[in-house]
Specification:
Layout: E1 11-15, E2 20-24, E3 32-35, H1 70-80, E4 91-97, H2 103-112, H3 114-119, E5 124-128, H4 135-149, H5 159-170, E6 176-180, E7 197-202, H6 205-210
Parallel strand pairs: 4-7, 5-6, 6-7
Antiparallel strand pairs: 1-2, 1-4, 2-3
C-alpha cells in the first residue's frame, strides 16, 4: 500500500553503510547531509551480474497521482549505486519517516529508475511487509522470493533454512531487495545480507537503528 505524500512530516534516508546519510522531506529542495552514528559500515565488493539467470521485477507501478521528487530520488539512487553510478553498492539504505510521507511511492520510483534497472541487472524483488507481518508471514515472503529466483527450488518450511536458501540464490547476482513498510526489526536478519543491496522503508526508529547490523 502506497503512502501519500504529506507536507507536514519529513522522512529521512539513512545509508547504513557508513556515518553519512541524507535527509529528505516534502519542503526540502536540497539533499542535506547529516550524521547517523548508530549504524555500522557494510561496504563489500559488489557481485558481478549473472545475465544468464532469471531476472524477476516485482516492484509495484507508480500511482496515477505520483508527483516526481527528483532531489529526493537522486539522494536514494546515489546511495544504492557505487561511485561510477553503474554498479550496486552492497549494504542497507533506509527511508524512514511518518505515515503518509510517501515512502512506498518513492521506493517504487527508485525501482523504476533506468539507472537502477541497469545496475541491478538480475532483478528487483519487492517484499511487502505490514504491521501484522509475523514470523510465518516472513517465511512466506522468503518462499516466494526463492521460487522467483529458482522456479525449480523447493523452499524450506522453516525460516532459518529458508533465509539461507534465499541468500545462496542471491550470491553472484546483482539484485535489489526492497523491504517495504517494515514494522519488526526482529525479522530483518532473515532478509539482509552484507553481500546484497537492500532498500527498506519504515516509520519506526527501532527498525532504523537495527537495519545496519
Amino acid at each position: 500500500m502506497s503512502d501519500r505524500p504529506s507536507s507536514d512530516e519529513p522522512a529521512h534516508l539513512v545509508d547504513t553503510r557508513g556515518s553519512q546519510g541524507v535527509q529528505i522531506g516534502e519542503h526540502n529542495k536540497q539533499v542535506n547531509k547529516f550524521i547517523q552514528t548508530n549504524v555500522e559500515t557494510l561496504i563489500v565488493q559488489a557481485p558481478p551480474n549473472a545475465g544468464d539467470m532469471s531476472t524477476p521485477f516485482t516492484a509495484p507501478g507508480l500511482p496515477p497521482h505520483f508527483v516526481p521528487r527528483p532531489n529526493e530520488l537522486e539522494g536514494i539512487v546515489e546511495h544504492l549505486l557505487d561511485a561510477s553510478g553503474t554498479r550496486p553498492r552492497p549494504g542497507v539504505v533506509v527511508v524512514h519517516g511518518g505515515a503518509g510521507f510517501g515512502k512506498t511511492t518513492m521506493a517504487a520510483a527508485v525501482c523504476h529508475d533506468e539507472r537502477i534497472r541497469a545496475a541491478f541487472g538480475d532483478g528487483v524483488l519487492w517484499l511487502q511487509f505490514a504491521e501484522t507481518t509475523t514470523r510465518d508471514g516472513a517465511l512466506a515472503l522468503l518462499q516466494i522470493q526463492i521460487s522467483l529466483l529458482d522456479p525449480q527450488a523447493h523452499a524450506a518450511n522453516d525460516i532459518s533454512p529458508a533465509s539461507a536458501q534465499f541468500r545462496a540464490l542471491l550470491a553472484g547476482r546483482a539484485v535489489l531487495i526492497v523491504l517495504d513498510d517494515v514494522w519488526s526489526h526482529n525479522l530483518l536478519r532473515y532478509f539482509i545480507d552484507v553481500d546484497t543491496t537492500c532498500l527498506i522503508t519504515t516509520r519506526l526508529e527501532a527498525v532504523l537503528s537495527r537495519a545496519g547490523g
